[in-house]
Write a structure and sequence with these properties.
Blueprint: H1 2-21, H2 29-54, E1 58-64, H3 70-83, E2 89-93, H4 101-110, H5 126-137, E3 144-146, E4 149-150, E5 155-156, E6 163-165, E7 171-176, H6 186-189, H7 195-200, H8 205-222, E8 227-232, H9 237-253, H10 263-287, E9 290-294, E10 300-305
Parallel strand pairs: 1-7, 1-8, 2-7, 8-9
Antiparallel strand pairs: 3-6, 4-5, 9-10
Helix pairs in contact: 1-2, 1-3, 2-3, 5-8, 9-10
Length: 307
């Protein structure tokens, strides 16, 4: 208990500065403080303990549905791990590994038109992810360049502006909506679950392509992750509302020249994610090392620790 209090005192200022900077005002300061002390700090202690036991770079997968706040959670955990535990932490998003727009346009012509839209497995550069994970495991660490993806322009930025990781991290938090996703049985792919699948993927080419990617390339990279933390949404219906809030935040952040999605575009966009999100809620709720149960208002209801 004393260690928890010490951690709280040494990190609360930076935490409050973070939520102020990010304009996270959906809860009272008292509620923020309570969540920080009772939820985030214990998770950070759990992560640090796993890092100590492993003795080398700990690779964590943090997954959740669109707009759930996983990037915020990763940032808060990073604050505690860096400030109190003095850990070298690297937070990476699978979103930054999206293929270039030109590559997705090529896939759309050769495989299926729906592959132009970023999101599903098959639209990430898995070779780059594999290279990054493999580099972390090498004894002699060399600087790694990590790509950056700009959602506002729907494309990867030029290589000269990529992030450089110059020192081997002790903890890597690899966050993303589909991190840890598993393939479905072929038979379950047949029945469409939304308008997009029913009218734009009648022959199942897109669904089967995505599922095959999960079976092979993504299975390989996800198996390299030590532990998973899964943020469980109360239902898929709430995901649309959360994604709308996320897009409104983008509107305020970027100028009018940037590409921001409309209500109807978001509604269609979410359909690309629906099948895998629903499957992940079933799978990772049972297999993740930590499951964070979310309320409709983004608050954390409870945390389940498995190991």
């Amino acid at each position: 208990m004393q260690l928890t209090n010490d951690c709280f005192e040494k990190t609360k200022k930076e935490y409050l500065n973070f939520i102020s900077k990010e304009k996270i005002y959906n809860k009272s300061i008292g509620t923020h403080i309570k969540s920080f002390k009772n939820i985030y700090i214990p998770i950070a202690f759990w992560i640090n303990n796993k890092c100590q036991k492993k003795g080398k770079t700990l690779l964590l997968g943090l997954s959740a549905s669109q707009g759930s706040g996983k990037t915020t959670v990763a940032a808060i955990l990073s604050i505690i791990l860096k400030k109190f535990f003095k850990r070298n932490v690297c937070v990476i998003s699978i979103d930054d590994f999206y293929k270039k727009l030109s590559d997705r346009e090529k896939m759309a012509k050769q495989k299926h038109p729906l592959l132009k839209t970023r999101g599903v497995p098959g639209t990430h550069d898995t070779h780059l992810i594999d290279y990054f994970f493999t580099s972390l495991k090498k004894k002699k660490f060399k600087t790694i360049k990590i790509p950056k993806f700009d959602k506002a322009i729907d494309d990867r930025i030029e290589k000269s502006r990529w992030n450089n990781i110059r020192k081997k991290p002790e903890i890597v938090i690899f966050e993303g909506w589909c991190v840890g996703a598993k393939p479905e049985k072929k038979s379950s792919l047949k029945k469409p679950i939304n308008f997009l699948e029913k009218y734009h993927d009648k022959d199942l080419v897109w669904r089967q392509f995505v599922n095959e990617k999960l079976k092979k390339e993504y299975k390989k990279i996800f198996s390299m992750i030590d532990h998973y933390i899964f943020m469980k949404a109360p239902s898929f219906k709430i995901v649309f509302k959360w994604r709308m809030l996320q897009e409104n935040k983008l509107k305020k952040k970027y100028s009018k020249s940037k590409k921001i999605m409309t209500y109807s575009e978001i509604k269609k966009f979410i359909m690309f994610y629906q099948r895998i999100t629903l499957q992940m809620i079933k799978d990772l709720s049972k297999s993740a090392a930590i499951v964070i149960f979310l309320k409709k208002n983004h608050e954390i209801k409870k945390v389940l620790y498995r190991i």
